[in-house]
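The aim of this short unit is practical: by the end, you should be able to scan a pair of folded records and say something sensible about each. We start with the first protein, listed as its amino acid sequence and then its structure tokens.
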Amino acid sequence: MTKKQTILGRIAQLTKANINSLLDKAEDPQKMLDQLVRDYTNSIAEAEEAVAQTIGNLRMAEADHAEDVKAAQEWGAKALAASQKADGLRTAGNAGEADRWDQLAKVALSKQIGYENEAKAAAPQIASQNEVVEKLKTGLVQMKAKLDELQSKRDQLVARQKSAEAQAQVQDAVKSIDVLDPTSEISRFEDKVRRVEAQVAGQAELAASSLDAQFEELDGDSDALEIEARLSELKGGAAAPAIETAPAE
């Protein structure tokens, strides 16, 4: 396999790669994309170097072809000049010199034919090389477009991964809130406060009940004293105290 065929094969393989299919098969798409970006970048650099060398060789071949065409034209002109010189000498009766110039014309014609043959042989190769160079240039453009696509997908994937990780953190936080509901702690504290309040209210009620009982006992003692006093008055012959009545209207 020639180097040219290797370059064409590599470009064709890379430009036809289905990125989405590769990602579907990848265990870690981000790592795979990073590796693909590196591979594509390296391949593009190698392909650019190879294509530049191919173009350089083509331009050398074109320059050689141009020189062959120019040399053929120059030797043709020399052959014509020598032939015309021979014709002039022959007309002047100098056959010997005329023959020498005709021989020079033949040498020039031989040179012309040689350069023409070289130019004809090189023409198809140059045309083929031009087609190859155009394909290589197109392939490089496609490879660079594929690299841009890879980098774009890689950036999108990283952004999506970060977003997914952030959402996962939020979900974990929500789950932890559900498991350890802070409002339940508030409810327990509220119940504790209510129990304390109830205890205080009970103590106050108990204290009030005791105070009422004491006053009731005091009232009972007053009645007993009143009874004893009146009994003493009865026994001493004193008149019973008059009961106040409301004045008649």
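Turning to the second protein, read its sequence before its tokens, just as you did above.
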Amino acid sequence: MTPLAVVDAQTLVDAVALGATYALMAVGIGLVFGVLRLVNFAYGQLVMAGAYTLAFTSHLHPAASIAACLAVVVALSTVLDLAVFRRLRSQSPAVMLVTTFALAFLLQSIALIVDVRDGTIGEPVRVLSGLNRAFTVGDLHVRQITLVTIALAAVTLALLALLLGRTTIGLHMRAAAADFRTARLLGVRSDRVIGFAVLLSAVIAVLVAVVLTVRRPLVTPAFGLGETIVVLVGVVVGGLDRLWTATLGAFAIGVATGVINGVLPTDKTVFLPSAVFALVILVLLLRPGGLFAPRGAASVERV
């Protein structure tokens, strides 16, 4: 095996793992968008809250730490939905979007206040840190968290497909995503559907928090923000109106980011965002409806 092939294989494995992480985030964002038409810029702060919880409970058994993370993220997500988003459902998408921006920076500020209580910024996370160990296949080094991330994304997407296709609540969610107004007239309980979507989105944020803290075991107030921005771009690139196209778009931009980062020389990686976003602009110029959206598909107006 040539050195070039080894580099390519290593880069591809790491890129697929990054794409799987982004795909998980896209599912969480896409679930809420499907029923609320809400592009939740604050989703990264749910991940951040989960990551801080993992940091503060690192001394506990991993199962207890993850359970605490789940409780905090679900509670925070529910509070945001009941106290903010539910009151703004009748407002325009622009109002909702600006509100999520405000919430994101508010939660960042709160996290900063909590974090600097000891005079330093950043909290280490030791939960499941053993997953960072790598094993070798020939000349290829694969971290355990890479395989866990890929498997977790695949299982999550498979379970979600079963939920949406084989259960009553899944059918109601699909109906709401297609036409919320008509679905509500036919007896779909909007609060129940939205609440379930918010709950699923929060659970996925917990999975993302666990994966990211293993990969980068230092939590700061900006934790998850960069990933959220890139995933939102990927969701638009894939096709915002459908969950599977949004997920594919996020996965694609994750893989592209990983590959470009691996190909660029070390001293040129500063140009990575420019290369990725230039590629995004090119894709949107050629396919403004989304790279994976069916041709001629039109978005449906939601309430």
